[in-house]
Amino acid sequence: MLNPLTTLYYDDYLLAVHKPAGLLVHRSPIDRHETEFALQYARALNGGKHVYPVHRLDRPTSGVLLFALDPDTARRLGQAMMAGLMAKTYQAVVRGWPPESGVIDHPLREEPEDRRRKHEEQPVREALTRYRRLATTEIPVAIERYPTSRYSLVELFPATGRKHQLRRHMKHISHPIIGDANHGRGRHNRYFAERFGEGRLMLAATRLELIHPVTGDPLILEAEPEASFQRVLSIFPGMGND
């Protein structure tokens, strides 16, 4: 069986991979019927031995995913993450032209993993995301009431780790991420799905910075967005492959 993960970094303590869009990290109560997970493929890359997810990427999000190879390393990395000592960078294609840079400081109500608990009152947590705009484009296609449609490529830097934080924050500032079925705009999502032959969430984890929990050395893990993401970037002059 072909392993869909690409190894980015591997030593005695850590395994970093690129996860494609559409692959769950591990079993979830929401997707009980699924049988393929990044966890099992990472275990295969580690010679069949156990791996421990340090963080998660949502199923439709692609990019850098880190595993610890033993419980102690997993515990140390979990503590570092809780202390805000890991820096994550994402790229996203969003509707409209947001400011060149900004901070989204908007608390979010927790979303339970199990949909059967959605009726229960959930706590509200602080949530903060920084962003900067990398590129803009205006295409001659009338998707809503305007004769043209505007989009941006942005970099996102979450300072907190709430569920669906980046999607919910970009919706909050009226620049939803393309391909987001829950928080985005259906007409724009359909246009991109039809133009590029597939619909995907245009969100990719491109960089993870941390201190190695054993050696103490700075570690920067990077991955270019996968091909399905790069194709969409062709709407920006001089970028991507159509």
From TrEMBL:
Source superkingdom: Bacteria
Biased composition (Basic and acidic residues): 106-123
Keyword Isomerase part of the UniProt annotation: yes
Reaction equation(s) it catalyzes: uridine(65) in tRNA = pseudouridine(65) in tRNA
Pfam families reported in the protein's UniProt record: PseudoU_synth_2 (PF00849)
Keywords: Isomerase, tRNA processing
Region annotation Disordered: where it falls in the sequence: 101-123
Residue ranges occupied by any Pseudouridine synthase RsuA/RluA-like domain in the UniProt entry: 14-172
EC number of this enzyme: 5.4.99.26
The keyword tRNA processing belongs to this UniProt entry's keyword annotation: yes
Enzyme class at the top of the EC tree: isomerase
One GO biological process term: tRNA processing
GO molecular function: RNA binding; tRNA pseudouridine(65) synthase activity
Role summary: Responsible for synthesis of pseudouridine from uracil-65 in transfer RNAs.
Protein's recorded name: tRNA pseudouridine synthase C
